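User: My notes are a mess, but here's the protein and zinc ion's SMILES. Can you give me a structure?
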Amino acid sequence: MYVAVKGGEKAIKSSIDLLEQKRKHISANQDIQISQLIEQLSFAVDRVLSEGSLYDKNLSALSIKQAQGDLVEAIFILRAYRTTLERFSYSVPIDTSSMTLKRRISATYKDIPGGQILGPTFDYTHRLLDFSLLNGKETSNKKNTPKSDDNVFFPRVMEFLNNEGLMEKEIEKLKSKPFDITREPMKFPAARDQWLQILSRSDEGFLLGLSYSAIRGFGSKGTHPFVGEIRYGFVDVKIFPEELGFEICVGEIEVSECEMVDQFEGSKKKAPQFTRGYGLTFGYNERKAMSISIIDRALKSQEYGEEIRFPIQDQEFVLYHSDNVEAQGFVSHLKLPHYVDFQGELNLIRELRKKILKKNKDD
Amino acid sequence: MIDGFNFAYLDEATKRMIRRTILKAICIPGYQCPFGGREMPLAYGWGTGGIQVTASIIGMNDTLKVIDQGADDTTNAISIKNFFKKVCKIKTTEVTENATIIQTRHRIPEKKLSEHQILVYQVPQPEPLRRLEPKEQETRKLHAYEEYALMHVKLYEEISHYGSVIKTYAYPVRTNRRYITDPSPTPKFDNPKMDFMEALQLFGAGRERRIYAIPPYTSVKSLDFEDHPFEIQTWDERCDICGSNNSYLDEIIVNDKGEKKFICSDTNYCEKNIKT
Amino acid sequence: MIIKDKILEVKNLTHYYGEQVGCEDISFDLYQGEILGIVGESGSGKSTLLKCLSGQISPSQGIINFCIDQNQPLQDLCKISEQKKRALMRKEWGIVQQNPRDGLRLRVSAGGNIAERIINEEIKNYSNIRHKALDWMDKTEMEKSRIDDFPLNFSGGMQQRLQISKILSSNPKLVYMDEPTGGLDVSVQAKLLDTITIIVRDLNVSMIIVSHDLAVVKFLTDKLLVMKSGMVVESGLTDRVLDDPQHSYTQLLTSSILQV
Ligand SMILES: Nc1ncnc2c1ncn2[C@@H]1O[C@H](COP(=O)(O)OP(=O)(O)O)[C@@H](O)[C@H]1O
Ligand SMILES: [Mg+2]
Ligand SMILES: [Zn+2]
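Assistant: No problem, the inputs look usable. Here's the predicted complex:
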């Protein structure tokens, strides 16, 4: 008697054991420390906490270690953990204008009040493999103490355009409670609070490709937006407990922010104004913040009455497909057994063939 | 239970939210209720909707059966069953009639279910009209206004091109003479079991964040034309293990010449048959 | 004389695209079985007017009252629910798009395209649907053997015939056509117009047809609106307007066609 696919239980156990071994056998006496990941693979840690939408560098690093460097898997692990956490409060909106800046650049003005701050960036490195890192390098414990920026004021670049009336007004304040994508199912047509949240934890690669498509020509209007300002630094997170009646700071997070200036709108009667796109992410994720700001602008097409022609302008296309936890799950589910359905298809195709072959013979 | 996690993984507030959605779904049979689906530690597309539904309704005294492709011992069924063993230490079973909750992917058990049981389906795509209309905003209107002509056009097309409707699984049904509903990718062989089923049927779509329900004793009709009535699959062969000629059969290839045998997809049903 | 029922009443209809005038201050009535033509040069607002009338865009100002049931008072198109409007479009009204590709499902067979509007009328018998579809293909002089082919591969003229079959198969009360022969060869145009004339007269359906071709409207319509720069500059019985044009623009139009 033939008994098919018994022993799923055993197979699963062996598979998990093999996966564990895969990590361990590499070099059991040189286990990577979480602190090493945080310090030396900081961009990976930031990407995972941004897309995992849980600001915790330790847990982000832990999930990277557990996922053996598979970042999409790490994001998934972090997300799954995040769901189980109690939500004790909503913060008040962070104020990025009072950010402790590590980097701040504008592409629209040569000089700006407060100055351009290049900060740490790969932009001007030559991408040459550094073989001196190959066998481990002595790392100096001496840190470059950044000069304190506390008493320097950094006005927003977009404000200059705004004050002159050249820039479309940003929403001042939400009229209702902001949409919470972690608690409510998606709604369409989506409003900006909904899509900016979704984009903020979307797959970086997807967003990059999408924004690239827009500036290559598969986009709404202007194919060349300008970086009004990019900021990266620390910002306070505050909550407002009703019973206290005043704000208290509960911590500090690193964020990247990008404001993009886009083609102007106007007509004979309505004075033209630039339009804008905005992007914010956890951690140092400049590439992603820029992508978001381009997509944000494109998603406003509907509001501006622009023709919806390209994927980037289509809310359902962008928002339904940008989350990599959803995407990787659904793509990978094709690995699950489908033999019941396939049996149905087998029966059908044989039947249809029989019918047609018989008919052809009769003719 | 494992440290640091609530009974059945989800926190109580989330479970309440899901139960409220389930109640609403039961009140509007076949209507896809949006719900604030959560990330689960299992991947989207691997049963997160069903798992969330089960996690919200399961209690200490429940006995859980999990099947995938009709079988209790397929890897994903075991993985899900293990998950619930880990997070709520409940009893599990392979015996259909002993289960109070049966979570399933792609099959309805051959044995008739009773009023005391709940069947939880894992649903990858809850929207039966999605292949015809990609936009959610539009499909919601099509349902709301009962604009279902397009679905019948699909059937018309299949009959015109192939002589019969060629949908073999996820064959659309009309629930309670109102909503067109996706029965999840179960074979059409199982559709008649849904009609006036004694057990409550709950459908969870995790990635798409929808829950829908078919209350006990509710009419569920497979779409068809009068002159091309709905038919289920039949086999010329019998089960190679138990000899059954009325259950859904899976085809297996037994040697490298490609010789085939057929066995019941419902493993528990097959075992029962051998014993009696 | 037979007293006909009014099925459409348009008052001061105006539509702007931002500050751009689409059409301005248009009023007219349409009675059961009448065929109204709208002519005018490109950009004169014909399509805009038609889109307003058929509920595809909501006008900036003005009233569109319509009737489906003669025992009921006229209803305001702008005030009915989306559900009612969609129901109206599925059965009582039909819109023949200038580009047939916009009005057809190109990856659904010819028969399936027609079936969609027949199924709306609760016909659940496959053979009946198919016979009706074949009937309609016959009426619009299509080859019946092409019933299972996809319109994607049809010629423009065939696609337009199919679209017309599809629209008429639900027995609509009012049909809108926006330059239905626009993109076709002259010889194909003439034949298609013949077909349209015969069917439409036979069905006693009311119709509003847009064209920039005076020969078409002369041939087909009872009444005429002449548009220029968004406004109606002249209106009346087709024969009267064409034989004895009052407005200088209409005179220009008619003289240009006579020279051809
Ligand atoms: N979607 C639109 N947006 C802005 N202007 C439009 C739009 N559609 C038409 N118009 C303008 O409205 C006027 C009338 O156009 P239309 O109704 O298409 O004329 P016709 O069909 O007679 O050629 C034209 O000036 C045209 O440019
Ligand atoms: Mg036009
Ligand atoms: Zn068997």
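The CA atoms of residues 45 and 230 of chain C lie 5 Å apart.
User: Great, I'll file this with my notes.
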